[in-house]
Specification:
Elements: H1 2-13, E1 15-18, E2 24-26, E3 29-31, E4 44-47, E5 51-55, E6 66-71, E7 74-82, H2 95-105, H3 116-121, H4 131-148, H5 150-154
Parallel strand pairs: 3-7
Antiparallel strand pairs: 1-4, 2-3, 5-6, 6-7
Helix pairs in contact: 2-4
Amino acid sequence: NQWCVLDFAVKTVSELASFSESVIIDNNLIIGIEEGVLVSEEMFAVKGLADIEITPGKNGFGTGTKVNLILGESVVNTYYVAVNGDINGDLYIDAFDLTWSLAITNFEVVFDVTSPYFVSADVNKDGVCDIFDSEIISEMMLYYDVNTNQTEEKE
């Protein structure tokens, strides 16, 4: 019984905050990290007593990266990174993301609307993943490829 009270108290006083005004933490999603920016502990502050643990997603430190708040050996809260346009989670916006976007648009792949992958695919933030999002991802892909030499950085 006492543990439940302590656990509740820790969860209510330990939360994640960002040092950047462009990064928003909402509903356990971390939104606003730019394409190509590696997620690190230095990006965040913890309000409370917990420590930060960052675990990459299956394709790296992009969309799907898990940020845990840990107190002792217990995870008190979990957040997931959602990089706008980076649906496959490799930290870059490229043809793989466009392919995922089209698959979502055609209902070949379905994500829950609260999933970081859905949030990343809904680039115009209208609540649906449709051809308009795919078109924007296509433009983002070309913009980042031309202006950041992304192909050189990946090799």
